UniProtKB/TrEMBL annotation:
Keywords tagged on the record: Cell projection, Cilium, Coiled coil, Cytoplasm, Cytoskeleton, Flagellum, Leucine-rich repeat, Repeat
Subcellular location: Cytoplasm, Cytoskeleton, Flagellum axoneme
Cellular component GO terms held in the UniProt record: 9+2 motile cilium; cytoplasm
GO biological process: flagellated sperm motility; radial spoke assembly
InterPro entries associated with the record: Leu-rich_rpt, LRR_dom_sf, SDS22/Internalin_LRR
Signal peptide: none
Domain of life the protein comes from: Eukaryota
Protein name: Leucine-rich repeat-containing protein 23
Biological function: Essential for sperm motility and male fertility. Plays an important role in the proper assembly of the third radial spoke (RS3) head and the bridge structure between RS2 and RS3 in the sperm flagella.
Annotated source species: Turnix velox
Gene3D superfamilies: Ribonuclease Inhibitor (3.80.10.10)
Length: 248
């Protein structure tokens, strides 16, 4: 509706759900009086900052397709789902770790992130980082409850940065990066619960017997790329692994 001013909302202090999508808002400060707010959607506006005064019950915020450049000032203690897809964020270092201890889902697709540094959010379960320009993985050891990590369409050449403390990670999507060697894939052996891995459209997929070699390295995988791991594939990989160990 081309709204630029939402000061009228200040008097509606009991609002729980607010959708301000597709306006021309640059300022959300009138929302500070909505202390009962649970759910806020401000997609497709002109916001350059995600800063808001802390709201005690806010659980879901969507800032999709704005002009936000950093993650400063997001401090809502019960926030569980934060969507910042399609902004201009270059770093995650502005997150207030001590005040986002309830955050479980973080959506950062289509931004300008070059690194994962700053994402030490202990309760995070789902992290979406596809379509950035990430070249290095840093700070992931803090993500002890993460179950799925999406890193498709980035610029990763190495897989340093994964940690055995990521003891819940089951799904990892690395499609369309620059991983050229299966030696890099071997670094995923530190992930104790990894069950599904997507490596399509990386140079390493062109190596001979690519699928078999990945299963030799990661025997616990249930799914590789789009396909479930078949019993005969697993048996062949186990045999090859055992043979190589004996040769050593």
């Amino acid at each position: 509706r081309d709204l630029t001013d939402i000061s009228l909302l200040e008097s509606f202090i009991h609002l729980r759900y607010v959708d301000l999508t597709e306006n021309k808002l640059q300022d959300l400060s009138p929302l500070k009086s909505l202390t009962h707010l649970l759910w806020l959607k401000v997609d497709s506006n002109l916001l350059t900052s995600a800063y808001m005064q802390e709201l005690p019950y806010l659980q879901v915020i969507s800032f999709v397709h704005n002009r936000i450049k950093d993650m400063e000032g997001i401090t809502h203690p019960r926030l569980a789902n934060l969507n910042l897809k399609g902004n201009k964020i270059q770093t995650a270092l502005g997150l207030s770790h001590g005040q986002l201890y309830s955050l479980q889902i973080l959506e950062l697709r289509e931004n300008k992130l070059e690194s994962t540094a700053g994402l030490n959010l202990p309760k995070l379960k789902n992290l979406y980082l596809a379509q950035n320009i990430i070249r290095s993985l840093e700070g992931l050891e803090e993500l002890g409850q993460l179950t799925s990590l999406h890193l498709r369409d980035n610029q990763l050449e190495t897989l340093d940065g994964f940690s055995s403390s990521m003891k819940c990670l089951q799904y990892l999507n690395l499609r369309s990066n620059r991983i050229s060697s299966l030696q890099e894939v071997a670094k995923l052996q530190v992930l104790p619960t990894l069950q599904a891995l997507v490596l399509l459209d990386n140079p390493c997929c062109d190596e001979p017997n690519y699928r078999l070699e990945v299963l030799v390295l990661l025997p616990h995988l249930q799914r590789l790329d789009k396909d479930l791991v078949e019993q005969d594939e697993r048996a062949e990989a186990n045999e090859l692994r055992q043979k190589r160990q004996e040769e050593k």
